[in-house]
Amino acid sequence: MQGLPRDQYQWAQSLDQNINGSLDLGRVDAGAKGAIDSTGTPAAFTKGNGSGILIRIGASGSTNGPIYNWTTSNTGIAVNHQLQRQPIGFHLVDSDKALQVYRVGTANINTITLAPSDATANATVYIF
Q1: What is the DSSP code (8-state) at residue 39?
Q2: Which of 68, 69, 81, 124 has the highest CB neighbour number within 10 Å of its CB?
């Protein structure tokens, strides 16, 4: 970085600090009701500084999802992602059994509709 003007050097340092340790996809929301589910798994999250949000979806009939629960296998549920933009996708972050999650229909600036291959699974998805 030697030879850069001071303002460019400071910008590069700031960028380096953010990329190497300051990116936060979300954290457990310890103050939320049901922050940790009955299995000890995080279930409620705060939004990090990434451009996405973690959402916990409980198994059908369980209390392991503070807001959302699957209804039946291969049936979509609308998830309010709070991104205020159309998400470009999602990633299955955690599940307690073999599970595929897929999008049903087109997402919009408020919701994305996701369906599970097995509604008896608890899952955490990252919507981005």
Answers
A1: T
A2: 81
